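A note on notation is needed here, since sequence and fold are reported together in a single record. The reader may check this reading against the record printed directly beneath this paragraph.
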Amino acid sequence: LPALSKAKAKAHGILCMSNTKQLMLAWAMYVGDSNERLPFAYAQEGNPNHPNYKYAWVHGIVDYNAGNSQNWDVTNTLAAGCIWPYTGNAMDIYKCPADRSAVKPTSGALAGKRVDRVRSLSMNSWCGMNEGVHTWFGGPEFRAYLKSSDFTDPGPSMTWVLLDEHPDSINDGFFCIDMKGYPNPGATALPDVPSSTHNGATGLSFADGHSEIKKWNDPRTAPPVVYGNNPNMGTAVQPNNLDVVWLWEHTTRFVK
């Protein structure tokens, strides 16, 4: 059984990286057709009449509310995102195969049936930002990536774009990296929590298009999944969490 479990975990890891590579290819094609401007990690969620709404990579709130159709209906979630046409409408690539989160809709054709949630991935909060959103978790002293040419520090191979978020932490398509304490390890914080469903690791993709599986070392980064309301989510301050230092180093840098 342990050998079978390891083989399954390895297969999940391979498929996860394949999914994120496909999404990054779609991301790159969108960027190429948009004068090198990046999709927004967040743009006026719930306000489709706002001019910036159409630039978000996805829309919708993922949770455990069985009455929330955004958990299973791609129409106003994945398909409303700007990179969707470049994916070939491949909805499966938006969710890690190791993420077992699901809901049972309370109404409609799927009522009472166990339905997988549509998404496990979230985007780097410093990518494609708009309307001063960065002031929530850093400030103008940090580099916001608006165009592909902005990936100069730490560089495209060192800057993550998409990662799998913890099933109990995920909501919108935006993964917050709080840079306010950078570079002091004693001031690390983790308002959003990455997934650890790959035996304590998560899948990430980077601005150069490559994907990898990152193993977390601090147990605070990888709280157990309860597939529901989890009180361990979004702990604002986690001093000396070196996993957060790694995320800092692979998210953005001071503007020079």
About this structure: The first strand starts at residue 102 and ends at 103. The chain has one domain: 2-249. The chain is about 15% helix and 10% strand.
